[in-house]
């Protein structure tokens, strides 16, 4: 499951991994603009994240990490939204993986500076869905999940070194010769 945190709109997406393939399960948004109270917005994010976890039973949560901007208040609000979504996943014992916006765009499109529209178009191609959602926050949440799929797949294909030789090379101070 992927989440694009926000205090006005939170985007989310769930993909199903079937072997080396992924399939779109759901994507959508939680609209928070009608709530004036920041604490209530955070509560809604927590509750919706729990609902998604209970409905789709994801194994892991990928979330967009906060980025550094000039508006400190916006960064604080975004960080709180991210923290609440993470807390919901932790409450359900789901591992969390954070990716920078640039990493997500790079993973999905091959371009770390891609626009939201380019990300949405590539997701349409990858996951074979026809309609672009009304809010690109939905595809941003989905992009976090797809990024994590690609990163997990990449780590599975990397060779691992194990055994005594690896232990010795990784722990030279613990072996006396």
The CATH class turns out to be: Alpha Beta
- What is the fourth-level CATH superfamily? Ribonuclease H-like superfamily/Ribonuclease H
Rg is 18 Å
Strand order of the largest sheet: 3-2-1-4-5
Share of helix among residues? 40-55%
Cα separation of the termini: 48 Å
- Estimate nothing, just give the exact number of structural domains: 1
Low-confidence stretches: 156-161
CATH level 3 topology: Nucleotidyltransferase, domain 5
The helix tally amounts to 6
CATH architecture: 2-Layer Sandwich
- Major sheet details: 5 strands, mixed
Structural class: alpha/beta
Short description:
The protein is of the alpha/beta class and 177 residues long. It has helices at 38-56, 72-91, 101-109, 116-127, 136-157, 164-170; strands spanning 2-4, 9-18, 21-31, 61-64, 96-99.
Which keywords apply here?
single chain; 177 residues; Nucleotidyltransferase, domain 5; five-stranded mixed sheet; globular
How would you describe this structure to a colleague?
The chain is an alpha/beta fold. The chain has a single domain (2-174), classed as 2-Layer Sandwich (Nucleotidyltransferase, domain 5). It has helices spanning 38-56, 72-91, 101-109, 116-127, 136-157, 164-170; strands at 2-4, 9-18, 21-31, 61-64, 96-99. A 5-stranded mixed sheet has the order 3-2-1-4-5. Helix 1 (38-56) packs parallel to helix 2 (72-91). The chain starts with a strand and ends in a 7-residue tail after the last helix.
